[in-house]
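ok so dumb question maybe but i'm new to this and my supervisor (M.) told me to 'just get the structure for NAD(P)-dependent dehydrogenase, short-chain alcohol dehydrogenase family' and walked off. so i did the thing. is this what she meant?? sequence i used:
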Amino acid sequence: MTFLITGANRGIGFALTKEILKKKHKVIAAVRNLKAKNLLQLEEENIDIMHLDISDYNSIVDFSAQLKCEVDILINNAGVLFKDSFPELKYEDFLNSFKVNTLGALFLTQELYKNKKLKKGGKIVNIDSILGSISNTRTTPSYCYSISKAALNMATKLLSNYFLKEDILVFSVHPGWVKTDMGGKNAPITPEESAKNIINLIENVKETGKFYDYTGKEIEW
Ligand SMILES: NC(=O)c1ccc[n+]([C@@H]2O[C@H](COP(=O)([O-])OP(=O)(O)OC[C@H]3O[C@@H](n4cnc5c(N)ncnc54)[C@H](OP(=O)(O)O)[C@@H]3O)[C@@H](O)[C@H]2O)c1
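this is what came out, is it supposed to look like this??
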């Protein structure tokens, strides 16, 4: 199978890449920096490293046109978190968060589909966050993150309905609180543990249009 992973050069995306390669699948690692040492050191023949700045629409269009093969599993993983609090919200941080966390995933999916790169019977996995769950919200370390991830959840739901006709499952996944640059060093879960669980979930998921945590438990929108 062919997996396409955005933000594959570090954190959860890199852990997913390593675990998927161990399973002998092919990985297209979509990254901003083609010289990312992590990826180059893997020395794997099953990996293609391609340039993609998910915040740039032209980059998404170019990437999707240049991609040579069809994708079984698209993992929209790239994300950004800018800490903020009301009433000190920053307009620029909202724009950047929406470009990466919401529009990046949505427009990459659209461009791949229009270029016939999404395989029938495949899956689209949007890496979301419990902080994007409206039902579970009390407070947040970042308004722009929570709001952009809640919007990503709406994209998941709408796309899941559209892709019924293509037999493609679309779902959101909260990866847990993970020890990465974003999650910080106090996070209880390693990227490898999160990645193994997410892959297990991807392999076993049968229902479209749902929001799961990395253990497979359903989360309320
Ligand atoms: N860690 C957690 O506790 C946690 C919890 C819930 C949800 N999540 C979600 O899990 C996903 C991965 O998070 P992480 O913890 O692995 O974060 P991370 O360590 O900060 O890594 C973020 C990844 O996204 C990429 N990225 C950011 N902006 C990009 C852009 N414009 N174009 C292409 N790639 C871009 C980064 O690439 P560069 O190296 O080029 O910046 C990097 O590979 C995110 O969607 C995040 O919201 C994480």
